[in-house]
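Is magnesium ion placement plausible here? Inputs below.
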Amino acid sequence: MTDLPGHMAVALGADDIETLFGAMARTIIAHAEELTALDQAIGDGDHGVNMKRGFEAVTANLPAIAAKPLPEALKAAGMELVMKVGGASGPLYGTLLMTLGKTLPAAPGRGDVAAALAAAIDAVKARGKSETGQKTMLDVLAPVQAAVARGEDLATIRAIAAEAAAATVPMRATRGRASFLGERSVGHMDPGARSSQLLVEAVCDAIGDFA
Amino acid sequence: MTDLPGHMAVALGADDIETLFGAMARTIIAHAEELTALDQAIGDGDHGVNMKRGFEAVTANLPAIAAKPLPEALKAAGMELVMKVGGASGPLYGTLLMTLGKTLPAAPGRGDVAAALAAAIDAVKARGKSETGQKTMLDVLAPVQAAVARGEDLATIRAIAAEAAAATVPMRATRGRASFLGERSVGHMDPGARSSQLLVEAVCDAIGDFA
Amino acid sequence: MKKLINGVETVLRESLDGFCAAHSDIVVLGEDHKFVRRRALKPGKVALVSGGGSGHEPLHVGFVGHGMLDAACPGQVFTSPTPDQMLAAAEAVDQGAGVLYVVKNYEGDVMNFEMAAEMASGTVATVVTNDDVAVEASSFSTGRRGVAGTLVVEKVVGAAAEAGADLASCQALGERVNARTRSMGIALTSCTVPAAGTPTFSLAEDEMEMGVGIHGEPGRRRVKLMPAREIADEMVAAILGDFGADASGEALLLVNGFGGTPTMELYLMYDNARKLIERRGIRITRSLVGNYVTSLEMAGCSLTVTLLDEEIARHWDAPVHTAALRWGM
Amino acid sequence: MKKLINGVETVLRESLDGFCAAHSDIVVLGEDHKFVRRRALKPGKVALVSGGGSGHEPLHVGFVGHGMLDAACPGQVFTSPTPDQMLAAAEAVDQGAGVLYVVKNYEGDVMNFEMAAEMASGTVATVVTNDDVAVEASSFSTGRRGVAGTLVVEKVVGAAAEAGADLASCQALGERVNARTRSMGIALTSCTVPAAGTPTFSLAEDEMEMGVGIHGEPGRRRVKLMPAREIADEMVAAILGDFGADASGEALLLVNGFGGTPTMELYLMYDNARKLIERRGIRITRSLVGNYVTSLEMAGCSLTVTLLDEEIARHWDAPVHTAALRWGM
Ligand SMILES: Nc1ncnc2c1ncn2[C@@H]1O[C@H](COP(=O)(O)OP(=O)(O)O)[C@@H](O)[C@H]1O
Ligand SMILES: Nc1ncnc2c1ncn2[C@@H]1O[C@H](COP(=O)(O)OP(=O)(O)O)[C@@H](O)[C@H]1O
Ligand SMILES: [Mg+2]
Ligand SMILES: [Mg+2]
Ligand SMILES: [Mg+2]
Ligand SMILES: [Mg+2]
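Reply from A.M.:
I modeled the complex. Tokens:
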């Protein structure tokens, strides 16, 4: 088991931040159609479109965002999502990034990351009046946070994110639009769980590259 | 060449009139879907529906209609069509029958039939501001009238009606809804020509039965 | 066929029952569902009566009321009503100043209204609308169809009749409005006549009909689906080209949905068409956007342009209180 | 995908441009297309602001004007607008008496309006509408969706605000109207979100969705297509059953088309529903039939029943002048 890369305990440079957000944006944009198709099955068919719009805005402002220290960059990217994504995912992912920005120090270590993720997930829960087990993005974010806190390596974190997303398939939704479907929400992957998995994978890749 | 049945020169009884209109109604009702399909191709898809509605009304009132002398029966059936069919075919077939009723004597001979048909066709032309050659019911009615005037037998009249209906296929419509299609009206049988053919056939059959 | 109905035989009757119950403050249903008339008739006023096949709602029943029609005769779906309907309607609303029939130019409608006029006892005049530029007018043909421009004629003449114009003036005004009005329509999908049960025509996923009427009848040309701007361009060019040198000054623009096109797209078409028209030096000072002269569930729309003058604009602006058009009261 | 558009990126912008040009006597477009506001604001009046995903037109922009909304924020198609839109709208229309947000109960809408309210400098209150009985309410779920009943809330509270009610009274009235309002919807076809390009769901030729919302989301159950009477029966039973013993007296009945269903069928549904409701001893004294809260080109409709009292009826009847609802002026 390898640790999170050591230089995470020093401040990320503009290049690193650009790599990080660039990777997140690229994977969301590349998977937009898949995310929309998942949302057509149990939602309203816009999750990919929404996320793509938001991350295109992040991409357009990437130089300005990356010029900031990591906490400010996270807040700026989060605000970009809030103002561009709309729907449920805009405020939620926006809150996630903005809270990470508020909680992370400029040169975070593993413990800082675990704590900041925990705070960000709590903020998402408060904003969404939701809990894990309701077939939402939280069902990926929470196990990933736990894995980080336990000190799992990047490969394990990736695997846990993938498993967690897959585990939303048999769930019955009690939050989000899929909850309107009741029993009929069973048997489909939650679109937000899938986008969270994609973001976690992108972050793992980027961090792996820094190492 | 057999002549029109001899007893056409005596008054038709209620049974004969019932046979005559019954045969017309049955063939129209039986072919309603075909007529509608023809009208879907170059019109507005209601010719079969319209004619069926009209001849169902004639059928419902058949005892009362058949109780009248032939001229009155024709006028009554024509008025029934006017008040029930609507569209272009209602006033036209209504005018045809009503004019036949006005022109035919109670005990018509062949010459009377030819003259009455000529007058009825003129009335249809006046009502429709139309002529033969425009891809309408007139392109069946006119050659049938000519055949009657020439003294053709029933089989020949039937054949002429069928040929005349088929001959509307390559025509370009200049009257009726099909005229809105211009060149695109070519290649389809005119629905009114087909319903006229069916009516002529039914009359020939009924007259054959009297003989 | 997917329709909210109980059976093809009762569609029209149940729909009229619902319409008259929902708008019982404005209209009354005539016996045997032969016509829908205004609840409050105005003594001495010229009576405006229209009608036509059903399936174009709100045309014509939705335009019965103060400042517009006195009665409307609903035929079967896409089929002209019959003379007994027009006679019954005229008798119910004639206030001694004569009856003006407003008739869309289809042979069926024209002939049925003609028969009714021949049988009528009172004074009857007729205005035939024929605003559709998609069909070439020629003395050898049926001529142009009456389509969405009929709404403009009914509104303007309705206001004049309400203001006390006599029968001859109403007829002359109707003919003048019709002469200053042009329309053109396109369809992205067909519609299904309930009694027929199958779509009138069918279009591939990338095709559209250019120059359709309001009966799901095929248009003049089948073309590949084009961007809204190009569609608007062809429609505007056909309309303004037909006006020729007369086209200047102020105009009314009606973007009419055929029943299956979202409001969002109708406003988008309005945006595109308006800009194209104004670029030609005509100022759009009156607008109407929505499903007014429909073709059941057909997707598509028509553009109608009426060249305004002071009189037409004044009557357009006059108060109206019908189920589908209402302002000023 | 067959749509009258120039490209999925510009649909919303071009449609809003068209809307604001067609109704320039009533509305003004906010900068960056963030909102549509009333042209003539009324000093000292509580400002009513609503908004939501686009694709439901005329909701909400068509309800901006005298006697109804002061501003509406159009989100992307079926996507809640963002907090900056609500902030800009509130700032543009706040007349010092506070801003009331009318929000349909979807987590996206609720969260975005919540964030806007948190960021706002002025006084803000919120009414969340949740009239859809198709979704079972439970403390473990998102709760009921806000659907066509939102129109009734906006009309009634709009009239109260126009008459000078203060922010707290407007909010209380909105909650009361919402509590007395229930809706239920069905779909015969899906709709296609422009940016998605394919239908959200698909139904066989003999299937329908019972209990759909207004986003082309699947309903509670997929069933065989039924006659209109049976559909109305199930909808009315769900609505009145949910009211329980409270359901008596006078009511408003709104038959709302989702965008692809002909007017003829909507009136037929009205006829069937009205008879079923009146048989249960409730008198329908106010009616509205048409495409008001749509789901792009989806075929289908919803029924909404509001139990009236003197205050609600009076505000419903009060003059309104918006693009989509207009009477009394
Ligand atoms: N209350 C909530 N808490 C956490 N996640 C939520 C909540 N509501 C929705 N989500 C997530 O948001 C995703 C849907 O996002 P999106 O489709 O963009 O928004 P909308 O549902 O408004 O159309 C869901 O798949 C789910 O993962
Ligand atoms: N002016 C006319 N003269 C003679 N026949 C006509 C005329 N107009 C239409 N028709 C006939 O009527 C038929 C169409 O009838 P129908 O579909 O019932 O009426 P509509 O065209 O009003 O829908 C055409 O096929 C044609 O034969
Ligand atoms: Mg969604
Ligand atoms: Mg026809
Ligand atoms: Mg017809
Ligand atoms: Mg959404």
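Short version: The longest helix of chain A spans residues 191-210.
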